[in-house]
Design goal:
By secondary structure, the chain is mainly α. It is 73% helix and 0% strand. It has a domain at 245-324. Helix 4 runs antiparallel to helix 5 and helix 5 runs parallel beside helix 7. The longest helix is centred in the first third of the chain and has 20 residues, at 78-97.
């Protein structure tokens, strides 16, 4: 019998009822909730759930947000369409995070549509990025690269005269680089991450909370870790991440992602102890980064199967079970 994976042993943290609720909302928009809480406040709270790794709480909020977003956008006002696009983008992001790519693709397509109608180049860039990411996960590397490169050009055409535009540009370059790396385009990947590093030098070390693309120099360095890992160069990945610290990232999701990206590089280099230590740190700061991502659960399962006597591995498995 095939050995159990962490998913089977501990279970995905997102209840099936929540997934079904969002599926229904994507298939047929629910009636407005009538909530007295302003939509912007609720959308900000939903983003907070994502940033904190509270995927179940975000999925619980999404049907109502989609319903009220559609209701507000019925007069096709630009700001309402932008908010609706942002809501679908958030839906795409969380579904990508938990590996539900069909739903993520649907949400990203709708985010792109409403962003175009809104007329905002930055909202359109955010939606384009989400769509490129899910295309990459669906093994449509060529389409993903084409889509993200078009988005980079549109952002660059703004003139990059504001920090918000420059942040969008740096973020899109990072996504382009990682997309190219996953497609095996080494030259494009390295060129884009170098340009992103250059562009990020003008950005603050801590992005304003309201910024649509809260990219920072440290965040670009974290992308470089992923780019080199995707290119199969664990040593370069770890070198790119040598100066990273959890305190450089505002949200638990990003702190956890730092640890999981470093863990993937250590695992690629054949260092199970260091891999487990990083994953243990990720599980402690943002359990969803370990528990809800299938690629990370697979590493945990491999660690448990092949290195059960390593102290950090035993601690990691115990922590994963407790946070399930």
């Amino acid at each position: 019998m095939r050995r159990r994976t962490l998913l089977a042993a501990a279970g995905l943290a997102v209840p099936a009822s929540l997934l079904a609720g969002v599926d229904e909302a994507l298939a047929s928009v629910p009636d407005p909730t009538g909530s007295p809480v302003p939509f912007d406040a609720r959308l900000a709270a939903a983003r907070g759930h994502f940033g904190a790794g509270r995927n179940a709480a975000l999925l619980s909020a999404l049907p109502g947000l989609l319903a009220d977003g559609h209701h507000a956008a019925r007069d096709c006002a630009d700001i309402a369409l932008a908010r609706l696009s942002a809501t679908y983008s958030l839906a795409a992001q969380v579904h990508t995070k938990i590996g539900r790519y069909e739903q993520s693709r649907l949400a990203a397509d709708r985010a792109t549509l409403y962003a175009e109608w809104s007329g905002s180049p930055l909202v359109a860039a955010a939606a384009a990025r989400d769509l490129a990411i899910v295309l990459r996960h669906q093994d449509k590397a060529v389409a993903a690269q084409r889509h993200i490169l078009e988005a980079v050009s549109r952002v660059e055409s703004t003139g990059l005269t504001t920090d918000a535009q420059r942040s969008a540009y740096a973020q899109m370059l990072c996504t382009t680089s990682y997309t190219a790396a996953r497609a095996g385009d080494r030259g494009q990947a390295l060129a884009m991450i170098r340009e992103a590093t250059r562009a990020a030098r003008k950005l603050p070390q801590e992005a304003p909370e309201e910024r649509l693309f809260p990219i920072t120099p440290a965040a670009v360095d974290l992308y470089a870790v992923g780019v080199h890992w995707a290119l199969g160069d664990a040593g370069a990945a770890l070198d790119a991440g040598r100066g990273l610290r959890a305190g450089q990232f505002r949200t638990a999701e990003r702190k956890g992602r730092m640890h999981t990206d470093l863990a993937r590089a250590w695992w690629q280099w054949g260092k199970p102890e260091r891999t487990a230590v990083e994953l243990l740190s990720a599980a402690r700061v943002s359990p969803g980064e370990v528990r809800d991502r299938s690629s990370i659960r697979e590493i945990v399962a491999e660690l448990r199967s092949r290195h059960p006597r390593v102290t950090a591995v035993r601690e990691l498995v115990a922590t994963a079970r407790m946070t399930a």
